[in-house]
Amino acid sequence: MRVVVTGAAGFIGSHVAEAAARQGHEVVAVDAPARSLSPATAAETWATLWSRPGITRVEADLAAVPQEVLGDLLAGADAVVHLAGRPGVRTSWGRGERAVRRDNVLATRRLLASARSARRSPPRVVVASSSSVYGSATGPCHEDQPVHPESPYARSKVEVERLAIAAAGDGVPTVVLRLFSVYGPRQRPDMAFHRFVEAVLDHRPVPVLGDGSQRRAFTEVADVVRATLLATTTALPPGIVINIGHPESVSLGHALSRIERLTGRPVAVERADAARGDVRRTWAATARAADLLGWEAGTSLDAGLAGQLAWHLGRRQARAAGSGPGIDPVPAATLPPGAAARDQELCRDR
Hints:
This protein is α/β, with parallel strands linked by helices. The protein contains ten helices and 13 strands. The model is unreliable at 329-350 (pLDDT under 50).
């Protein structure tokens, strides 16, 4: 199968590209690393994909390249995993709103237009959305309930979903995955667990926005990769929306206590005001994913944090040895005392 992965230099996208290649698929990895929120991190990941067998890299800005170039990228594709976009609630206000509309809405509209006009039958297009479309949850969020976006980023994802559902009506077999608080190896430096772990390892106070009681359905990246690849091959109703998240909603304070236990270091917290548009709680109803994909999140928070911590330690070891950034996780044998050994193979990920 030929799989096009957009956003392949990113946290989730790089994992999906590598996992698809390991499964024997022909992978076309597409990204514009310079437009990332973390260009240096994206460039490191992009360079690593160059050496992965079965992956062809194409540097392209989906919102800017000629439409015929997009058509050529999708030519012969069996599936497209569309992970490219501008993430982040906090950076989507003010000038950031134009960026999220360009990189999320415009880029998706152009990609789906090329899928519609594919020279043979349109490819399956798996589109990444976000749990932020729900707003703050009072209970498990179900896919058919009304959405309440509370930021420009969340509004852009609502529009992305509408574009995907409209494309399904035009004959493109689309699937929308609403992803919940993904974490793990290769997480971007601006994301919470990355910031928390680095601060603890540096013996610095951990920067926390708000009082720490906000809750998230933290979902380890390997579980997200597995669900994403299942969505490329499983027979599904066109335009279906599926939550991909851990069913437990956990407070940031609890997550910090787990990081403290795993590192064996006390965590000092440095608080700042809650971010504008940051929801109080995300909570995933996962019955549809179980019914349609046979999927459930299989990674506990302790095991997932242990994998992410190992990745941070591996990067530091590589830098100390002068052997480069070390973006891949270290062997399980180097996990810190008390950390659960786990499968590292799928956890080398946007």
